[in-house]
Design brief:
- The chain has 425 residues and is of the alpha/beta class.
- Strand 11, helix 5 and strand 12 form a beta-alpha-beta unit.
- Helix 6 runs parallel beside helix 7.
């Protein structure tokens, strides 16, 4: 295997040092390292972080390869500084059997750009009626440990309880898309002042908060692990804060777009801003940012949701919800949090790796650990051009925005997948 010497780099914001990578692991960290056989990567002005881990990615394959493939999504992830992503189950066919999750897992291994860990469906066909083959997926080669019907809520409380009980046997996690469907029928955006003015049917905050409140009670009763996807309201933050204070085994994520964009974006009627859950208010954003810093919200997850042109460039009412996120997430985190490198590493690498049970990921560069890391230039600023993104889709809400930070290199088990900002595969 190759050897690399990253010189004069700041490891998670500390004083500059050298990092030697050999045989897939970090061989040494220290000033003045000498390795004549190693390829030198100049780390001056760069920050080394543990490779980012995304707990919420839509790769669309199998079934919608026109929007994304495992390979193209993996390339976007690597360019965004990720070394591992968890692929959601709403593919076609749905990832509700051992065969489908193994297919996604193998496609990820073949691409070789990031570790792709499939998430299995909770219910057959995401229909919310019968439990899927949770045990078979857990025992498969993919070793699924997180299950989600994301895009759909597991609305039946009895079925949700059974799912929580089932995965407890192997310390699995149910990741819930919190949306009471009877409160969001026909909803087009956040219910509030803007929706009233625009005449669009509103998606009330309570539809999210009610399901989270129910599910933390169920998780507490069962003693199982619950993860809440894409938290978007201030009220949800309070429910989570109270649950964590009681010791409920619940974790939660927030997306970059819910940390930055408000429902006022819908005033343009540009469907690129249509997402589920919808963009909320400035007050919600403030609560989400504070909760992320506090740790009430555990991680940043992208909810990377690529869509083909015909599914987005149409009337608002008919457009599919979702936004791209993998290639811009770290820049949004820097924009929102500033250069709080330890906090960014915790929320975008260490904690998501721990929730997903991904061994070898989420570890700071140190002697003996797998060399899964990313190098960031915090001084760089870049303007987002949709045509330059690696994804097969172009539905980014950050088009032509200038954002801080640039991924210079990403290493997966000691081999570069990105160097000088360019993917190597």
């Amino acid at each position: 295997m190759s050897s690399y010497l990253i010189s004069n780099v700041s490891v998670v914001g500390a004083a500059p040092t050298d990092v030697l990578i050999r045989d897939g692991v970090v061989a040494a960290v220290g000033a003045g390292l000498d390795a004549p056989e190693a390829t030198v990567v100049d780390g001056t002005g760069l920050v080394a972080l543990p490779g980012l881990v995304d707990l919420h990615t839509h790769l669309r394959e199998p079934g919608r390869e026109d929007a994304e493939t495992v390979e193209s999504g993996s390339r976007a992830a690597a360019l965004g500084g990720y070394t591992a992503v968890c692929a959601m189950a709403n593919t076609s066919p749905v990832a509700d059997t051992a065969g489908v999750v193994e297919q996604v897992w193998r496609l990820g291994r073949e691409a070789g750009l990031v570790d792709v860990q499939p998430i299995g469906a909770v219910t057959v066909g995401l229909a919310g009626e019968h439990l899927a083959e949770l045990g078979a997926m857990a025992d498969s080669a993919a070793r699924v440990r997180i299950f989600s019907d994301d895009g759909h809520c597991v609305a039946d409380p009895r079925l949700m309880r059974r799912a929580l009980e089932y995965v407890k046997a192997f310390d699995g996690t149910i990741a819930q898309h919190a949306e009471e469907p009877r409160l969001t029928e026909g909803a087009q955006m956040h219910e509030g002042e803007v929706s009233t003015r625009l005449g669009l049917t509103g998606w009330p905050a309570v539809a999210e908060e009610a399901i989270i409140a129910r599910d933390v009670l169920l998780a507490e009763h069962v003693g199982s692990r619950l993860h809440v996807c894409h938290v978007s309201t201030a009220g949800s933050v309070e429910v989570l804060r109270q649950a964590k204070a009681r010791g409920v085994r619940v974790t939660a994520e927030v997306t970059p777009h819910h940390l930055l964009l408000t429902d006022s974006r819908a005033e343009t009627y540009d469907p690129v801003y249509k997402v589920n859950p919808p963009l909320r208010t400035a007050a919600d954003i403030a609560a989400l940012r504070a909760a992320l810093v506090e740790g009430v919200i555990d991680i940043v997850a992208t909810d990377h949701a690529p869509h083909a042109v015909e599914d987005k460039e149409c009337e608002w009412a008919y457009a599919r919800p979702g936004m791209l996120g993998l290639e811009t997430a770290l820049s949004i985190a820097l924009d929102v949090l500033g250069p709080q490198w330890d906090l960014i590493a915790e929320r975008m690498s260490r904690t998501p790796a721990r929730i997903a049970g991904l061994e070898g990921h989420g570890l700071d560069p140190a002697p003996g650990v797998p060399a899964n890391l990313t190098l960031v230039d915090p001084a760089a600023r870049r303007t987002i051009e949709p045509a330059e993104l690696a994804s097969r889709s172009r539905n980014t809400p950050y088009a032509r925005m200038t954002l801080p930070g640039r991924i210079v290199a990403t290493f997966l088990r000691g081999e570069p997948t990105v160097l000088d900002g360019k993917a190597l595969k």
